[in-house]
Specification:
This protein has 320 residues and is α/β, with parallel strands linked by helices. It has 11 helices and 12 strands. The strands form 2 sheets. Strands 8-7-6-9-10-11-12 form a 7-stranded parallel β-sheet. A 5-stranded parallel β-sheet has the order 2-1-3-4-5, with helices on one face.
C-alpha cells in the first residue's frame, strides 16, 4: 500500500509508520510539481491545506482509495469537480477532527476574556504608561451562542459553563441533548439566537450551505453590544459586510482567526479597528500537533487495511 504525504512531515513520524506497518511504502511530495509526479503512485494521500488541490490533480490519482486530511476542515477537497470525482470513484475522505478542541476552545475563551476584561485597551494604556481604571465586565450570566457543535463547539460550551455563562447551541439536528448547552436551536431560528446573545462563536464547517452564512443582515440582527468570533473558515463570513457592520457600530467588536483570503491583505480596514482582534489562523495549532494527528491516521490505517469502519469519515452529502 503506497502512502503519499503532501507536506514535509518529520522523518520520525514516517519511521514510526514504517515500523508499525510493514506492508506500506511512504513518500513525500512537498510542492505541486512533486504532487503531479507522484500522485499516480499513491493508494492513500495524506494532505494538509492543499490550496492547489483540484480535479486535474485528482484525475492523475488512478490508484487513489483514501484521502486523510491533516486538518478538521476538508473543504479544499470538496470543490465541486473534486467532490464529484471522490464520489464517482468511491474515494474515502477522513479528517483529524477532534484534535483541535483544546487549543481552539482556549483561543475562544481568550477572546471572550479579552473583550470582557478589556485587555487590549489596558495594553494600549500600558504602552503609553497611563493609569486608568476602565469599566470592565465579566462573563458570568452572559449569553454565548455557538454555531456548530462538533468537537470544538462542544468543548467551548463546556469551558463557557465553568465561567457560568448561558450557552445556546445551533445545530442541524436538535433532537439530541448536548452536554453544557442550555438551549438548542436549528438554523431557521438563527435570527432569534443572534438577537439574544452577547457573544457569537462560529465553529461551523465550510459547506455549500454555510458559505456566506453571516452577512450584514445577520450582524444587524445582533445586539450593538455583542461580539462576533470566527475560528472556523473565513468564507463563512461575508468579510466586506462584517467590516461595514463594524464601521457602523452594528456590533461591539469581532475576533477573527480566519479570513476570506489568507493572509489578510495589509490594506484591510480590519487592521485599523480598535474593537477587532486579529490572529493569523493559529487557533488550531499546538505543540505536538503531528503526534496527535498521526495517532488518528494510524488508527484509520489499521482499520482501512483490516477492512473495518474508519473514524472521522466525511459524509459526502453533509460535506463534514
Amino acid at each position: 500500500m503506497n502512502v503519499l504525504f503532501s507536506f514535509d512531515i518529520k522523518e520520525k513520524y514516517l519511521n514510526s509508520l514504517k515500523s508499525e506497518f510493514n506492508n506500506i511504502l511512504v513518500k513525500k511530495a512537498v510542492n505541486i510539481e512533486q504532487m503531479e509526479e507522484k500522485i499516480g503512485w499513491a493508494d492513500i494521500l495524506v494532505g494538509m491545506l492543499m490550496r492547489d488541490f483540484d480535479s486535474n490533480l485528482l484525475s492523475q490519482a488512478v490508484n487513489l482509495k483514501w484521502i486523510q486530511s491533516w486538518s478538521a476542515g476538508v473543504d479544499v477537497f470538496l470543490k465541486e469537480e473534486s467532490f464529484r470525482h471522490l464520489n464517482k470513484n468511491e474515494i474515502i475522505l477522513t479528517s483529524v477532527s477532534g484534535i483541535h478542541k483544546d487549543s481552539m476552545s482556549e483561543q475562544v475563551m481568550g477572546y471572550l476574556i479579552s473583550f470582557s476584561r478589556r485587555l487590549p485597551d489596558f495594553l494600549k494604556l500600558q504602552e503609553k504608561r497611563e493609569w486608568e481604571r476602565l469599566k470592565v465586565d465579566y462573563l458570568k450570566d452572559k449569553n454565548l451562542a455557538v454555531f456548530g457543535l462538533g468537537a470544538v463547539g462542544k468543548e467551548i460550551a463546556r469551558k463557557a459553563k465553568v465561567f457560568k455563562m448561558r450557552v445556546k447551541g445551533i445545530k442541524r439536528n436538535t433532537d439530541v441533548e448536548i452536554p453544557y448547552v442550555d438551549e438548542l436551536y436549528n438554523s431557521a431560528q438563527k435570527e432569534e439566537v443572534l438577537r439574544s446573545s452577547d457573544y457569537i462563536v462560529v465553529t461551523l464547517p465550510l459547506t455549500e450551505d454555510t458559505c456566506g452564512y453571516f452577512g450584514y443582515e445577520e450582524f444587524k440582527d445582533m445586539s450593538k453590544s455583542s461580539y462576533f468570533i470566527n475560528v472556523s473558515r473565513g468564507k463563512i463570513v461575508k468579510e466586506d459586510e462584517l467590516i461595514k457592520a463594524l464601521q457602523e457600530d452594528e456590533i461591539a467588536g469581532a475576533a477573527l482567526d480566519v479570513f476570506e483570503d489568507e493572509p489578510l491583505a495589509g490594506d484591510s480596514p480590519l487592521y485599523e479597528m480598535d474593537n477587532v482582534i486579529i490572529t493569523p489562523h493559529i487557533s488550531g495549532l499546538f505543540p505536538d500537533y503531528n503526534r496527535e494527528a498521526i495517532k488518528i491516521f494510524k488508527k484509520n490505517l489499521r482499520r482501512f487495511l483490516d477492512d473495518q469502519e474508519m473514524v472521522n469519515i466525511i459524509d459526502p452529502d453533509l460535506q463534514y
